[in-house]
Amino acid sequence: MALAGCVRTTSTTELTGFGTAAASLGRQTGLDFAEANRVARAAEVDRFVRSGAVGLTETPFAPAVPAEVANDWREAFGDLERYGLLLGALSDEDQRGRTTAAFRNLGVELKAGAAGARISPGVAAGISSLAGTLIGIEAQRRSREILTRTDPPVRALLTAMADAIGASDAEGLRGTVAAAWTASGARFQRAYALAVEARRDEDARRAIVTDYLALLDRRQAQLATLADLRHSLLALADAHSAAAAGSRRPIGDLLGVIDDRLTEVASLSRSIEKETAK
After folding, report:
1. 3-state percent helix, strand, coil for the chain, nearest multiple of 5
2. Which structural domain, as residue segments, surrounds residue 107?
3. pTM reported for the whole predicted model
4. 6 belongs to a structural domain
5. What are phi and psi of 199, to 5 degrees?
6. Euclidean distance between CA atoms 83 and 81, whole angstroms
7. Which of 18, 72, 133, 203 has CA 20 to 30 A from 29's CA?
8. Rounded distance, CA 68 to CA 62, Å?
């Protein structure tokens, strides 16, 4: 039984785990973006070839996620990873003064940049709010005190990142990816119409339908991974809040789920890469 008045604390491993979780989500996001860009580019290639255009430049082949936006996402996850590692370092009382100074330095770096602006206004506002909180951290603060102060902006940032992914397949990045898959599937619809018009045999038409349905399955699988990414971001926000409230294993319980999802996304990425290379 816990002693009356005893304050529960979150372990160093748990605090560092926040940074580990952010790093894993960053890798998953990178894979998701690469998949989205492959599909979008394939659709753009099909559209360009059908257009009959003569001049070939990179302009017509816009990616689903521009490089500068992907870079903003990487930086946001990298900053959250650094934040988590600094949280874990607070357990060393001899280094606590240096660690709190490092928090303030991280805040200054975030404040000086324009991080998140190309993701969404909400993400930019979340990063700015976190920066202000980190800059205001006083020396020798303990991890629980810092968690309590940073939880509102961290939660707001992760929620804004989840919103940028999209709450449905018609919103945010999920909407962009869904549209790219729809455009990519148009070639099978045209091929089937031509096959019917040319009175091709049933086997030929059946093969087109089978390929089209396989594309729809891959579309659904990728959209599901993006939905999972959104859920993971929200779950990480909840875990941070739980840690701020003194829960002992809020982040460690989430790490296994995130790692499993990362493995699934990597496998799907290889599958989509093979299909789009055909």
Report:
1. 75, 0, 25
2. 12-276
3. 0.84
4. no
5. 55, 40
6. 5
7. 133
8. 13
